[in-house]
Amino acid sequence: MEQRGDGARRVSTGKRGEAGARGRTTVADGVVAKIAGLAARDVVGVHAMGGGMSRTFGAVRDRVPGGGGDRSVTRGVKAEVGEVQTALDLEIVVDYGVAIMDVARSVRENVVRAVERMTGLEVVEVNIAVSDVKLPDEPDDDEEEQPRIQ
User: Fold this and answer.
1) Exposure winner among 47, 108, 116, 121, fewest CB in 10 A?
2) What is the DSSP string of 40-58?
3) Residues 44-61, buried b or exposed e (16+ Cβ, 10 A)?
């Protein structure tokens, strides 16, 4: 595996002799994390990604101009990319009343399908940690009090 300074790793792109093998393609960990984060959020029953503290800090960072709003896409996702394989760790918050094992299975299937289709990497594992349950009467972390002065 070839690691570059920007977090990207070498990904094989075909067999010798094929036109696609005349060069190499790299996929950064962050690219895989974004794909996985978006795919996980698409599953019904997933309320949010990340643990309580990461969501709180992320909500604050998202409100600061230039604070890296795209980081919310990868919140709760850790990707390790090798030459031809990737492994993912996801931390999710589920909605109250859903079957957690069914949601986890759906998240895993959706993430594997999206990452493999978009990157060509084999997803060897998707570990899912359910860190919280969103109760119907709980306010969202993003629904904090609005400032009185605008």
Assistant:
1) 116
2) HHTSTTEEEES-HHHHHHH
3) ebbbbbbbeebbeebbee
95 burial type by CB count under 10 A (0-12 exposed, 13-18 middle, 19+ buried): middle
Between 23 and 100, residue with greater pLDDT: 100
Distance from C-alpha of 38 to C-alpha of 73, rounded to nearest angstrom: 7
Report the DSSP pairing between strands 8-11 and 25-28: antiparallel
Backbone phi, psi, residue 56, to 5°: -65, -50
CA-to-CA distance for 137 and 150, rounded, in angstroms? 27
Contact 39, 113 (CB under 8 A): yes
Residue type, 57: F
139 burial type by CB count under 10 A (0-12 exposed, 13-18 middle, 19+ buried): exposed
Give the closest residue to 11 by CA, choosing from 127, 126, 116. 116
Instruction: Give the model's pLDDT for residue 100.
Output: 98
The tokens 């850790």 sit on which residue? 78
Torsion of CA 95, 101, 107, 111, to 10 degrees: 160
Average pLDDT of the residues in 43-49: 97
